Amino acid sequence: MEREGDPRGAWVWIAIGCGGLALSLLCILPPVLWLGMSDEPEVVGGPSIVPPSPPVGPSPPIAPSPPIAPSPPIAPSPFPSLPPPPSPALPPPPSVGTTSPRRVSAIVEQATGVPGLRAGTTCLFDVTRSDRPDGTFWCNAQVSCGGQLLYGGPGAGFFECTLYEQPERHVVGDDPDTTSADSDAAMHLDTLRNQLTVRDDASGRLGAFSVRARVTAVR
Question: Which of 12-16, 36-40, 99-103, 173-177 has the highest average model confidence (pLDDT)?
């Protein structure tokens, strides 16, 4: 039994009241809080609502590119191009060591100052190579037409020349001096162009004359 006037009894009743109040709060407060929160819309974890995009209208049509006109055909030239003319064939290099004579044949085309010599007369003579002491060479010819010696003679008939071997044994040479300058007539020979001329002045053995002939063969 409690003793009257004992202060510990009052504290016991105070403790029991506080414990009952705390227990009541623990039982009532959670439901109240839950009910208060349930009135708000739940947004956590819910699906996001995205407003729909406005409809996109159709793209305007693209104008087609204008067609490219084909190039006009090139008209054929009225003057077709011609192949270039062939280059003139150059003679082969001159021979160096050939010593055999070349036999030249020609036909007189014009003759003045030589009795009995007329157009159509045949000329026939040899051209020989003659070496010089300095290592060079020149040629010698005794030109006769219709049996008459027109150029050359004993110790004469020498002229500067070029000799060829292919395709024919051509001779190109010239002696520009007449008898008044040396001991024989002047002579020009070019078998590449079929040319032969012999001329002399009045101091020559036959007097002044001139003969032109056309070379017909050389071998």
Answer: 173-177
φ/ψ of 26, rounded to 5, equals -65, -30
> 167 preceded by cis ω (within 30°)?
yes
Q: What are phi and psi of 171, to 5 degrees?
A: -130, 130
**Residue 7's pLDDT band (boundaries 50, 70, 90)?**
low
Asked whether the beta carbons of 108 and 120 are under 8 A apart, the reply is yes
Helices (H), the chain: 7-38
Averaged confidence pLDDT in the chain: 78
Q: Please tell me whether the overall predicted TM-score, pTM, comes out greater than 0.85 for this model.
A: no
Who contacts 171 (Cβ-Cβ below 8 Å, separation ≥6)? 102, 104, 127, 139, 161, 162, 163, 164, 189, 190, 191, 218
CA distance 218 to 123: 12
Sign of CA dihedral 89, 140, 184, 113: negative
